[in-house]
Structure formats: structure tokens, C-alpha cells
């Protein structure tokens, strides 16, 4: 039964003539999904800023917790940066 239905669907898609498969006229037509691509997707929702996560990741206390973080803060001090960390 499944192979008969599969063959009917395959024949329907390959013919492209009738809106319904000829072997199963009682079935409703299959809705075609819109193609997925760059034009169909919503863009620009990747970055959702969170101040707490930013401060936990790039903050002053996090920088001073490691040797390389201390070096980074010292480099910024020597360069004269107004903002050392977040």
C-alpha cells in the first residue's frame, strides 16, 4: 500500500500536469511549502545584547582573574584608554 502511494506521489510530482494524483483522486492536493532561502528567512536577530552577560564575560573582575586579563588591562592603561573594560 505504501509503495503504491509513493509511486502515485512520485508520478504526480514528475508529471506536473494535474493538481491531483490520478491513482488517488479522493486525497486532497498536497500544499507545496515555500522554498527556504536567504529571501525567506528573517535576518538581523542574531545579536540580542545582555548587559549582565557582557559584564560577566568582558568585565573588570573577569579581566583581573587571569594573568592575560591583567596584561590586557595594563596595556589599555599604558595606551591611555578611557575605558579599560566593560
Automatic annotation (TrEMBL):
Transmembrane segments: none annotated. GO terms for molecular function: structural constituent of ribosome. The keyword Ribonucleoprotein applies. The keyword Ribosomal protein applies. GO terms for biological process: translation. It comes from Petromyzon marinus. This is Large ribosomal subunit protein bL34m. Residues 15-25 have a biased composition (Low complexity). Belongs to the bacterial ribosomal protein bL34 family. It comes from the Eukaryota. Residues 15-48 are annotated as: Disordered. It holds the Pfam family Ribosomal_L34. Keywords: Ribonucleoprotein, Ribosomal protein. GO terms for cellular component: mitochondrial large ribosomal subunit. InterPro entries: Ribosomal_bL34.
